[in-house]
Amino acid sequence: MRSDTIRVRTGNRPQVHDLTDECAGFVRGEGDGLLNVFVPHATAGLAVIETGAGSDEDLLLVLDELLPRDDRWVHRHGSPGHGRDHVLPAFVSPSLTVPVIGGRLQLGTWQSICLVDTNLDNAERSVRLSFLPSP
Amino acid sequence: MRSDTIRVRTGNRPQVHDLTDECAGFVRGEGDGLLNVFVPHATAGLAVIETGAGSDEDLLLVLDELLPRDDRWVHRHGSPGHGRDHVLPAFVSPSLTVPVIGGRLQLGTWQSICLVDTNLDNAERSVRLSFLPSP
Amino acid sequence: MRSDTIRVRTGNRPQVHDLTDECAGFVRGEGDGLLNVFVPHATAGLAVIETGAGSDEDLLLVLDELLPRDDRWVHRHGSPGHGRDHVLPAFVSPSLTVPVIGGRLQLGTWQSICLVDTNLDNAERSVRLSFLPSP
Question: pTM of the prediction?
């Protein structure tokens, strides 16, 4: 299994960060197998959505509504309402598996692999890419 | 890795479509390994739930409440409120991995693998099944 | 693929039960590969969150809000509002894949693998652990 970690600059604003190019580059030249994308952070997740047409913004807005950045959270530290970032990964999982055939991700036309990072307190994130080839 | 795409007719109403039989048939005769189910569409996801006892209907109802089909969405095209279908995959992921032993899915008694398609504008969907065998 | 089932006592209250030690022990001594954790129950899921700082409690509270234990659910049996437990796995998936390198889970410092079981009617649960090694 080939596995490596990439660094992603997410800044101090909630972000949907497109990782598709990095993922596609990672499996290029490989054969068939499964790509696992894994975020080793407790306040971020991965989503497969269309980017650049408004859905990235829509996702952040609906997350603000479903998991409000207010004072309801028992887990308190960092920015106000940061506790909501700690429940995010229960709904937007930090693990994603994508099939690869002939070194190409089998994504649909409008699908992008995205890091969803609503955390305001960590400007840089790492993401682990692992390719398990077919035996 | 054996990988193939099946076609699913979902019609023009929101649907929870049971794929368990197709998945079970796909791995029959195989040994041990992981089945990856992947939906290459930006407006559908996969859920493992019980079907036929009301939960499929419950899921569509609660999705209408959590992700309302109204005019809040930045991403606008197709049917009114279609933007909600574009954030669905962030919560109901288009990728699912199920363990297989001796050619049998290791699902619990009440679990079914379901395509969740709330999109009204695409009546036919494809789903990719990939079996990665144990080395 | 090495695969085994563990038993977890969850009692008759909603629970976020930390499985990290069992998962880490299961892959210890292995090489590289993917660990799949799978819950063969229709009313529980798996989340990767921080435990012991309040987020486990926060998750149960926000689940009570997003999926209320009231009489809206079509699927009715067992405890009042139990129908909400049946839609939970659509949002908190019963399948989770974690990369393993040199027999070690590649979790971040604050990540724990947790069984999320809001079901009041089943006091004991099983969880399947499967390690697919690199070829």
Answer: 0.98
